[in-house]
Amino acid sequence: MTSHNFLAALTGSFSTPCADNPTVAMIEAAYRHHGMNARYINCDVKPEGLADAVRGAKAMGWAGFNCSIPHKIAILSHLDRLAESAAIIGAVNCVVIRDGALIGENTDGKGFLTSLTQVMDPAGKTVCLLGAGGAARAIAVELALAGARHLTIVNRDARRGQDIAALITESTPADARFVAWDGAFAVPEDTQILINATSVGLGDAEAMPAIDCDSLRPGLVVADVIPNPPKTALLREAEKRGCVTLDGLGMLVNQGVISVRLWFGTSPEPSVMARTLEDIFGVK
């Protein structure tokens, strides 16, 4: 008689709003492809419900969960310990439940770093980072831990930009400085990697960060964290000027790959997840 296991391993995401988060489709596609008896549940969890959601996940034996806006910092008080980069970043977007303990990880920067290394090793490189939000903070820390030599943090809000620059200089082997973003920013000539970690371009293929496009030069790596649309105005302009470009889809896929690996110890096939996102976003 064939035996059946009707108890799926549970994973998911806690955030609000969450209806436009495609992670569930991407990860469940990977589960199906690999024949994994697992499910990913996209949960709309309000701030006042986070503690109950975490207790529920633990009580129901979940393998782990992602958490996004607005929970990346609030989740810290519900965890037993943090991974190294998550502790430096001060935010968590992936929780692993192992032997009853809740372990906080941050895959934002790791997902970007995995994509970046496919076109350039950041070790010893000079990086210019546009923005100082949560994604920028995570990316800056992971780049510094991966050996980036110097980071320039460009942001309109001086306090947030200075905070990240100080964090990198004080907590990692890298050096960082803050530059105020006032008008069209000219990318410094010694920059080898330019990263747009702002929300400019999200859902708007014509929106462009305020930069001096004449400072984009052949050979410069230009990356954008925006997954939708994948081909942002910044990347299109960078391609025209001979830059090496990197879109935000890879970062999103790699975040999913890392999360599944943390929960189950195995890495899913990235191409399966990428195709799912490409279908959702209408990428030809």
Characterization of the model:
The chain has 284 residues and is an alpha/beta fold. The chain contains nine helices and twelve strands. The strands form two sheets. Strands 2-1-3-5-6-4 form a six-stranded mixed beta sheet, with helices on both faces. Strands 9-8-7-10-11-12 form a six-stranded parallel beta sheet, with helices on both faces. α1 (23-33) crosses α9 (270-281), α4 (108-116) packs across α8 (248-264) and α8 crosses α9. The longest helix is centred in the C-terminal third of the chain and has 17 residues, at 248-264.
**What is the H-and-E element order?**
EHEHEEHEEHEHEHEEEHEHH
Which structural class fits the helix and strand makeup? Answer: alpha/beta
- Overall mean pLDDT stands at 95
- What is the approximate shape? globular
The radius of gyration is 19 Å
- Provide the helix percentage: 25-40%
List keywords for this structure.
12 strands, alpha/beta, six-stranded parallel sheet, 9 helices, 35% helix, single chain, 284 residues, globular
Could you give the topology of this structure?
Blueprint: E1 9-15, H1 23-33, E2 38-44, H2 50-59, E3 64-67, E4 81-82, H3 84-89, E5 94-98, E6 101-105, H4 108-116, E7 126-130, H5 134-145, E8 150-155, H6 158-171, E9 175-180, E10 193-196, E11 221-224, H7 233-240, E12 244-246, H8 248-264, H9 270-281
Parallel strand pairs: 1-2, 1-3, 4-6, 7-8, 7-10, 8-9, 10-11, 11-12
Antiparallel strand pairs: 3-5, 5-6
Helix pairs in contact: 1-9, 4-5, 4-8, 8-9
Produce a short descriptive summary.
The protein has 284 residues and is an alpha/beta fold.
